[in-house]
Amino acid sequence: MTDSNQWIDRFPGLSRLGPSTKEALLTRSNIVNYPKDTLLFGPGKSPEYMLFLIEGTVRVQQVSETGHEIVLYRINAGESCVLTTACLLTYEDYSAEGISETKVQAVAVPKNIFDDLVAQSKSFRDFVFAAFSKRITDLFLMIDEVAFQRVDVRLADRLDKLADDQGVVKTTHQKLSIELGTAREVISRQLQEFQRRGWVEQNRGSVTLLNRAQIRQLADHNS
Fold it and tell me: Is 6 helix (H, G, I), strand (E, B) or coil?
């Protein structure tokens, strides 16, 4: 568990804030904990808090009216959520959902405190918009990948990034299709081709990278 007086040091941008701004954050925010697979926010709901992630990972994904899903980005420890920032600034409801992929510990900054700090503290504003800008850039890169890059290249890149130190990716074809915003059948065919080449081995609920060098070489094809 994180000490309530030390969490702010986990965020380089926040640690540089002035004493009065730090004091407001520390005294008027709460540390919250969520178990794995918790829906933290979803479409049609208004944000009540700005969450700064201390531990864990949150997956933010878009779900269409037809049920088609795509992962937009992940929030890791030391980061905040750009969608929540946008909704707080524009007074809009969420248009996507955030789900905890692990146990999550975060700092919940109430909306009124967030509004006050954005209005009164230039350093806090700078922190918020710097994080916002970086994530928007990441989103544009993701759109470019979905629209213009080959599925095999994108799949290789995602497998390499999701694999652990032993080269194992604990996932399913359906989850990978959500990651890449494509059909499950497309992922299945591509994984079958990777397996035919001897690059991966497929097991129930996991994919093992047998030739990570080849996977990385393909992933770097469009870089």
Answer: coil
